[in-house]
Design a protein that fits this description.
- Strand 6, helix 15 and strand 7 form a beta-alpha-beta unit.
- The chain is an alpha/beta fold.
- The longest helix has 32 residues.
- Strands 3-4-2-5-1-6-7-8 form an eight-stranded mixed sheet, with helices on both faces.
- It starts with 8 loop residues before the first helix and ends with a helix.
- The protein binds adenosine-5'-triphosphate and magnesium ion.
- The site of magnesium ion has 6 residues, from helix 3.
Length: 405
């Protein structure tokens, strides 16, 4: 199936990422686990700030060294300015401002309870309840839910032109969209109705539900549970209003999803599924980023040929080694071209953006700035095969010309 997953024709024709995101006030980086969402979120933040916008990047569980490199304080739960001098020393000048933070799930949840509780006393009682203490950090979905709550709060504040949101490290990208509903169902006590309701089935239902909740939260105290759901019931309408407002924000045409994937089969299929799901839900993808791409060249494909060519200069042994590793690399490059074609075809995306696989992890500013250059800058000449491609090489055209299926 072919999916049109961009909102506007103009945006679809635009092959420059900064131009595609020019009117986006929210950018959400989503994808399978470990593909580079956090790295891309930081890079996109740099890119938007470089073009003159006031940007906040909300990262979730960034690698410690990346957080340190950006000077992110662990505490605070509010975006802090990233020192422009840090970036300038790596050759990137910000015309705008870059602010960044690490999401603090517990604190965001606490603040939400305080905001939505009808009385300070209710908030205090909820925050002190053992069920809540488990819920706010351990229940599946709380990271996704608080990420959206933080996004919503920052967007409302009007303090930034653009907010770039990283998404939590779940296995499937789709969890991000579905987790808040699951969490709401939990808070609503839909799962626990039997505990509270005076129905004839209450006892049996309570037994089942109690066991389920105990599995999720590890909390065994029936009294705490009952109290928790009673207290939370007072906040439910607030939670629902919020959830509706967040859904609206996600569906806003100025909210841009960027789908991040690595070239591996699982993440690629996940990216396609996620794009289709966005499309069905009326949400807007503004682009696909294929991270950790290996760009190969045909002439390194055959280890023996490479070895023979290099032998006079390097000696037989070393030339054979180089030949073998070049061939291995070319195998990866071939896989990656196929991934690119699969994505381009399945999603009607003529030119996914790509970021090359670097030898080392992306844990310092200079590596981030180099990724930024790949994603936003240094346009290549338009390809003769696809003059409309602007500066970016039409990657699938290249794959096709190599005769891959
Ligand atoms: N293009 C790249 N080249 C080399 N290393 C990379 C590249 N992109 C990301 N990495 C590294 O891969 C690891 C995973 O990246 P990242 O943390 O951004 O992924 P993620 O999708 O956010 O993961 P999670 O799902 O766990 O949150 C990190 O160590 C990062 O430095
Ligand atoms: Mg991450």
């Amino acid at each position: 199936m072919t999916v049109r997953h961009r909102p506007k024709r103009e945006a679809a024709a635009e092959l420059d990422l900064a131009a595609r995101l020019a009117d986006a006030s929210v950018v959400i980086c989503a994808g399978a686990g470990g593909v580079g969402k956090t790295t891309v979120a930081a890079t996109v933040g740099l890119g938007l700030a470089a073009t003159g916008r006031r940007v906040a990047v909300v990262t979730i569980d960034p690698a410690r060294r990346l957080a340190e490199a950006l000077g992110l304080p662990e505490l605070g739960n509010e975006p802090q300015p990233v020192e422009p001098a840090l970036l300038e020393s790596s050759g990137l000048e910000l015309r705008g401002e870059l602010h960044a933070m690490m999401l603090d799930v517990k604190r965001t949840f606490d603040e939400l309870i305080e905001l939505l509780a009808p009385a300070a006393e209710t908030a205090r009682a909820i925050l002190a309840n053992p069920v809540y203490r488990q819920l706010s950090t351990a229940v599946a979905g709380s990271q996704e839910y608080t990420a959206m709550a933080k996004l919503f709060e920052l967007e409302r504040s009007g303090a930034f032109d653009a907010i770039v949101l990283d998404t939590p490290p779940s296995r499937n990208a789709i969890d991000f969209l579905e987790a808040p509903d699951r969490l709401l169902a939990f808070l609503e006590g839909r799962a626990a109705a039997g505990l509270l309701g005076p129905t004839g089935h209450a006892a049996r239902a309570a037994g089942i539900v109690f066991a389920a909740i105990r599995r999720i939260t590890g909390v065994a105290l029936l009294d705490d549970l009952t109290t928790f759901f009673r207290l939370v019931a007072e906040l439910l309408s607030g939670f629902h209003e919020r959830a509706a407002a967040v859904r609206e924000l996600l569906a806003d045409p100025a909210t841009a999803f960027l789908i991040v994937t690595s070239p591996e089969r699982g993440p690629v299929e996940e990216a396609i599924y996620f794009a289709q799901r966005l499309d069905r839900g009326g949400l807007h993808s503004r682009g696909l980023i294929l991270n950790r791409f290996h760009a190969g060249s045909e002439d390194t494909r055959d280890a023996a040929v490479t070895a023979a060519r290099l032998a006079p200069a390097l000696g037989t042994e070393l030339a054979a080694k180089v030949g073998r590793s070049a061939a291995e690399f070319e195998q990866l490059a071939r896989r990656d071209r196929l991934a690119m074609r699969r994505l381009a075809d399945a999603l009607d995306e003529p030119a996914p953006f790509r970021l090359s696989d670097r030898e080392a992890d992306v844990h310092d500013i200079s590596a981030l700035v180099e990724l930024h250059r790949e994603l936003f800058g240094d346009r290549r000449e338009p390809s003769p095969e696809r003059p409309e491609a602007g500066g970016r090489e039409p990657v699938d055209a290249k794959a096709r010309s190599h005769g891959h299926p």
